[in-house]
Amino acid sequence: MHLNNSKIIVIKIGSSLLVDENQKIRKNWLLSFAKDVQLLKKKNKKIVIVSSGAIALGCKKMSFDKKNIKLDKSQAIASIGQIELMNLFSHTFSKYKLNISQILLTLEDTEERRRSLNAKRTFENLFNLNFIPIVNENDTIATSEIKYGDNDRLASRVTQIANADTLILLSDVNGLYTKNPKIFKDAKLIRNVNDIKRDLKNIYIKGVNEYGSGGMTTKIEAAKICQLAGCSMIIANGLHSNPISKIIEKNNYTYFNPKVSKLHARKKWIISSISPKGEIIIDDGAKKALMSGKSLLAAGIKKISGKFDKGDHVKILDKKNIECARGLSSFTSEEIVKIMGHHSNDIEKLLGYVAKSEVIHKDDMVEV
Question: CA-CA to 338 of 20 to 30 Å: which in 43, 116, 144, 255?
Fold first, then answer.
């Protein structure tokens, strides 16, 4: 089963799974979902949940009709609903002794390198603290995102940033069909997709598969991002109770295979398109550590050249000025000047504030 080999799993749930058409909260469904998450946690899986629902819950609280709300008002409603949403998750998940946290993102946050690097560290630290991040689109400041409800694409970016193995998009159907199953009885479920262009060339996605609040088109776009990031993706029916258990037991869903390995995708992401903003020259000890898969620490840095910010792409050179790696810096060039040659324990004292211990984390570095 595909989820058995996944260490980090992102699950996206839409507002229609949390609130029914009569604006009633589906409390029993959420309880069953929390039980599923507890079972995954017992198998040592790290879980991220991307959830819609802030505007729906805000409308419920204010007794507004969602269809009649304009964009500027919907942002205020989202702000009201955000508290309702997190209270709902907190109250439900606490019954299964599950700790949750909140992360608010926009698509821009996930596509800008420095911001996504910070988000990645946050996910890692929350996993270490045994908390489940609940990610919501930051509807209070988002603009076009609200109109299109594109949380599928946001979920795929979160999957990429969190270095997850699998994204599960819980939908209102079992997966991607050859035709719209709500209209055509002979519609067949497409169980495996290796190549989106080739495998789906005879499927008119927009015409016959536009069901669910986000529609199938956004789910296909999410699958493309996942495949190129080395992650697998599942589209499955979320309307049942215990939706994750149903995926595992019934094996009835559409599965998108990754196109490349996660490691290859990460290396490509680090090196591609951006020219290095500066250079870091390291000693032999640091070079040896790097070659054995360790992070770059301040103690091994001899000098730097260029001016760069946190998250910028830099070259790493040895004492002979031969390039040995590239990576994303966790510090600005000014900060590195202050801490280079010093032990990691001294960084806080030297800078005057708490900072990371690695100048370039091993996950953000590629040997060349």
Answer: 116
